[in-house]
Design goal:
The complex is a heterodimer of chains A (about 350) and B (about 220). Chain A has about 350 residues and is an alpha+beta fold. Chain A has twelve helices and four strands. Chain A is about 35% helix and about 15% strand. Classes of the chains: A alpha+beta (about 350), B alpha/beta (about 220).
Chain lengths: ~350, ~220
């Protein structure tokens, strides 16, 4: 739909597009290469890939460059591109033990099996803006290495780290579904309240990171959720992508992705059948995005707990999708003069004296 | 469409290697994302403006109907390929399945039908037309015709009216290789809107035209 109120119509729209293009491509600075974005702005690339639901670092870098760094817009561009791609196959389930971690911490344990592996993180150092002058920074930088491409971790993974496991026996509420249904595909049918857990997890994995962490923070801070939430394990690593061979039927690894995974527990002291046990929440998302994985695990748990009402489930399913909220926001900028005029008329009619009252 | 619950991915079906499709044919039909996006735009345009002829880039010797279809199907779309008596079209049919991984379906169950031989009224009558609640499950047909937009003595002028054709006007589309009976069968299949079938006509040179289910097709001399 065009902005029909603009003088000049099509011409004005074309000129507006030219201006945006000039801002994007013009200017005195050097051309921005894609490998600079994938290599230096890796977390932005991961975030866009996760919110778009497509593992494609080069394409995500293109989207970021095209949107001039607006990650919400970049995720929308990549999500739209994703919808044009054919499905090639269905991947087989991969056990959690197949993840090769580059970072694995277990805040709930002092000495987890395999030890705490800090990996690459700034979590334990003060957050101070680095004001080293450019020349010194350049001179002391470690030698450049090939930027990470699809599925190859920058840090070598350690395949020997065992998963932390579950809380002591008898302390965990059983949330397993013995029927083991096929996962709900939210790209095929809309995820609305009442859908299985798999749909919620997928929706959160694609959710806009800021909205997801905000909703989690809002709910987890509420007085009714006063019990502490403790992550059992937080991992980042390389997960193989396996499919069944079309002819032989045996599993083959065809690619890999980097993921962040979190498992969170929270006790429930309220009197109900599982009241004296831990409840567990799970989060897994594409790329290096620890905040998202943790918030996702926390929300998974809280939605499950939300026994009296499904309001939280509804918010998780309908209020967190980036392209959806951006689309609604953007549409407000389209012409609304008919709506506006009709409201003005209605308000005037309300204020006008009512002839039946005989004023 | 299968009867599986909405939103659940179907179990992967193992396909036995069937007669080792010709690698050259498979390569000709395998579309890159850019190619299928371009095809999609062209197909959408001709479907939105019935009677307009657009052009697809078709690799040497490949049937245009198969090329156009392959850009839009994947492992989730049940496909049926109508083949002629010649072994060549059977080989192209195998290549369609091999290049896309699309599941094979019988003609009444197919969501997409690729006709490498002239369509018959029986074919049209057998197609799935969707249901009033799910009209989008009606078949999408890519049919090979001899020529589009020509002016030869064997060309039939079809007069088109309906959405996408300016009000009060009538567009015409010259087709060679579509019989009068087939056109009548198409009108019968599309009589109960929103159910019906959407038809793309493709010629060997890559020319493509669309006849959506909303278009009324009249042959000259008919009322």
């Amino acid at each position: 739909m065009g902005y029909s109120g603009v003088r000049g119509g099509q011409e004005a729209i074309a000129a507006a597009e030219r201006l945006a293009r000039r801002d994007r491509l013009g200017g005195a600075s050097r051309w921005l290469e894609l490998d600079q974005i994938t290599g230096r702005l890796g977390l932005a690339v991961d975030r866009v890939m996760g919110e778009a639901g497509l593992w494609a670092p080069e394409l995500a870098a293109r989207a970021i460059r095209q949107s001039r760094g607006d990650l919400l817009e970049a995720a929308q561009l990549l999500r739209a591109h994703r919808s044009t791609l054919p499905r090639l196959a269905y991947s087989s389930p991969v056990p959690a033990a197949a993840l090769r971690p580059v970072r694995r911490i277990a805040p709930a344990y002092r000495n987890p099996p395999g030890g705490q592996i800090l990996g690459d993180t700034d979590d334990y150092t003060p957050r101070i803006l680095d004001l080293t002058d450019e020349d010194t920074a350049r001179a002391t930088a470690p030698p450049p290495r090939r930027p990470a491409t699809a599925g190859t971790p920058v840090v070598a993974p350690d395949p020997t780290v065992p998963p932390v496991g579950l809380p002591p026996a008898g302390l965990l509420a059983d949330r397993r579904d013995p029927a083991d249904p096929d996962p709900f595909d939210i790209t095929r049918a809309p995820a609305r309240p009442g859908v299985p857990r798999s749909a919620r997890l997928t929706a959160m994995a694609r959710a806009e990171t800021g909205s997801l962490t905000h909703l989690w923070y809002l709910v987890t801070q509420a007085p009714r959720n006063a019990q502490p939430e403790i992550p059992l394990e937080l991992r980042r690593g390389h997960l193989p992508l396996r499919i069944e061979h079309p002819f032989t039927g045996s599993p083959v690894t065809v690619a890999g992705v980097r993921v962040s995974e979190a498992r969170t527990v929270r006790p429930d002291a309220r009197p109900h059948p599982d009241g004296s046990r831990f409840d567990i929440g799970y989060g897994l998302c594409l790329g290096d995005n620890e905040a998202k994985a943790l918030a996702m695990a926390g929300l998974d748990l809280l939605v499950h707990r939300d026994k009296t009402t499904n309001r939280l489930e509804q918010r998780v399913l309908t209020a967190l999708d980036g392209p959806e909220l951006a689309g609604y926001l953007e549409h407000l900028k389209l012409p609304h003069y008919v709506d506006f005029r009709s409201i003005v008329d209605r308000l005037r009619a309300l204020q006008a004296p009512n002839p039946e009252e005989g004023l | 469409m299968t009867d599986r619950a909405a939103g659940t991915a179907p179990a992967p079906a193992h396909r036995a290697p069937s007669g080792a499709p010709d690698a050259k044919r498979v390569r000709a039909l395998r579309r890159t994302p850019q190619q299928s996006q371009r095809d999609f735009t062209a197909l959408l345009d001709v479907l939105a403006r019935p009677g307009r002829i657009s052009r697809l880039t078709v690799p040497e010797a490949a049937p245009a109907a198969a090329v156009a279809g392959c850009g839009l199907i994947d492992v989730e779309v049940p496909v049926h390929v109508l083949t002629g008596p010649d072994p060549d079209s059977a080989a192209w049919a195998e290549a369609v399945y091999a290049a896309t991984g699309a599941p094979r379906a019988e003609l009444p169950d197919a969501r997409t039908v690729i006709a490498l031989r002239p369509l018959t009224p029986e074919d049209i009558a057998a197609l799935h037309r969707g249901t009033p609640l799910d009209p989008e499950t009606g078949a999408r047909v890519f049919a090979q015709v001899d020529a589009l937009g020509g002016q030869g003595p064997h060309d039939t002028e079809l007069h088109l009216t309906g959405p996408g054709v300016p009000d009060g006007a009538e567009r015409s589309l010259a087709v060679r290789g579509l019989t009068a009976d087939t056109v009548a069968a198409l009108a019968a299949a599309n009589a109960a809107f929103p159910c019906g079938v959407d038809l793309f006509l493709t010629a060997a040179d890559g020319a493509v035209a669309g006849l959506p289910r909303t278009t009324q097709v009249r042959r000259p001399g008919e009322v």
